[in-house]
Each structure stands twice: as C-alpha cells, then as structure tokens.
Amino acid sequence: MSNLFDLTDRVAIVTGGGRGIGWEIARTLAQAGAHIAIAELDPMTAEKAAEEIRGMGRRSLAVQTDVSNHDSVEAMVQQVIEHFGQIDILVNNAGIALNVPSETCTVEEWNRILGVNLYGAIWCCAAVGRHMLERGKGAIVNIGSMSGSIVNKPQPQAGYNVSKAGVIMLSKSLAAEWAKRGVRVNTVSPGYIGTDLLNKGLREFPDWGKTWLEMTPMGRVGSPVDVAHAVWYLASDAAAYATGTDLIVDGGYTAW
Question: Could you say which of 160, 192, 233, 253 is catalytic?
Fold first, then answer.
C-alpha cells in the first residue's frame, strides 16, 4: 500500500510559518516531502525559516505578507504560484491573541484581532481557493482553536473566541461549497500549546496557568508538534474523505 502521508513535491503555504506552531507545521510538512512557502509579516523571520527548510533538501520561499491586508495576500499567492507553479496545501496559521475585557476593548483592537485571525483566513482561502478550484484539487487546513467552541477562563478574550469561531464556520462553509470540486477544507483547533508565548503567560499569570492545567484532563500543555501532526494528516491523502471537520487537539479540555 502506498504511503498516504507522503507529500513529496507538493507545495504548501504556511502563514505565520516562521515561529511557534507555524514553524513546527512547516518543518513537519517539509519532512513529509513538501516544498514550503513561508508567509510572514517579518521578512527576516520568514527568510530564516525558509533557509532552514532548504537545509532539509526542500525548496522554500519566504514571502513578506500581512494576512490582514487583502492586496498583500493576493500578491503573496501570485508570487508563490510564479515561483513553484502550483499550490497544493494551504495552512492558515497566522494569528494573534488579545486578553482585553470586552467593555474596554477598542475599535482598533477588535479590528486588529478580527483582521488577522478571521479576515486573514478569508483572504487566503479565497486567493488560494481560486487556484485550487482551477486545478480541481487541493487541501486547506485552517488553524482554529478550542476557543472557537468554548469560552476560556479566567482570561477575558471575547475577540479571540469570536475570531476562531468564525474560522471554524468558514472552514465548514467552504468545505460544503468546494467538496465536489476537489478542494478539501478542514480546521485544527489546538488547546493550550507550549509555545514561547504561552510559556511566558504561564510565568506571568500563574493563577491563569493553574486553572488551564486543572481544566485539562491530561494535566499538561501540548507541544507544537501535536498540532503539526494533526495538520499533516488533514493535508495528506490519508484524509481524502475528511472535509468540513474540526479536529480538536486540546488534551481533553473540551471533553469536560
């Protein structure tokens, strides 16, 4: 039987692929054989990640991209197509979190978090989706969050929760629209994952961290590679019949 997880010579875009979960996703897909376009706001971060991917024997392109800007996304996708000739996989990973009480959250803060987390995914799905639909094949994996299904505590983050709920519904909607045209769209929704940012939060807000771990049946945070492996599955032919799904990777948090 052929290896359904083999991604040899497929081309993947990973937004926010230069650090944290995004970098682990990019590295994992490259290990499976894919060539990687790193779409990052910071060009130096993007190029550093792309150079490491090239060191693995894969082709890689760093593209400075502001996913909240429609024109920037369109330009990025065109650049990737011109460089590689195709896009087989899109991983919408770029995202931000704001812990701001809703009654004091400013218009600018709402626009920022929805612009990156939700509109960023919309613009990327639309631009890459057109290309995939023309080819009649492709896999899109959007990074949601368990926060799109539940309300975290004790931190205030209504904007983040709303944005990730939107990402999950976006994936389901596009999956239904595009299923018969060869393009699959799914979501991976992480729980608390041990990135540098989360570990900083655990140090600075120990009471928050105590609650997070107590509410997670496994009693620990996950690793970025746990998310990357879930993305790998949904991006591969092993998930050929999976579309519109939300794969939650949260150590059991949402089971309670």
Answer: 160
**pLDDT on residue 149:** 98
- Is the peptide bond prior to 154 cis by the omega test (within 30 degrees of 0)? yes
CA–CA distances in Å: residue 127 to residues 79, 88, 120, 131, 230: 12, 13, 11, 7, 24
Whether 217 shows a pLDDT value over 70: the answer reads: yes
Could you confirm whether 160 is annotated as catalytic?
Answer: yes
Q: Which domains does the chain have, with CATH numbers?
A: 11-249 (3.40.50.720)
Classify 200 in phi/psi space as left (phi over 0), alpha (psi -120 to 50) or beta.
alpha
Beta strands in the chain (DSSP E): 11-15, 35-40, 60-64, 89-92, 138-143, 183-190, 246-249
CA 152 to chain CA centroid, nearest Å: 19
Please check the confidence at residue 202 and state whether its pLDDT lies above 90: no
Query: Which residues, other chains included, contact 114 with Cβ-Cβ below 8 Å and sequence gap of 6+?
Result: 159, 162, 163, 166
Residue 204: pLDDT band (50, 70, 90) is: confident
Q: In the chain, count H helices and then E strands.
A: 9, 7
Q: Round to whole Å and give the CA distance between 173 and 168.
A: 9
Locus of tokens 């909240």: 68
Check: CB of residue 97 under 8 Å from CB of residue 69: no
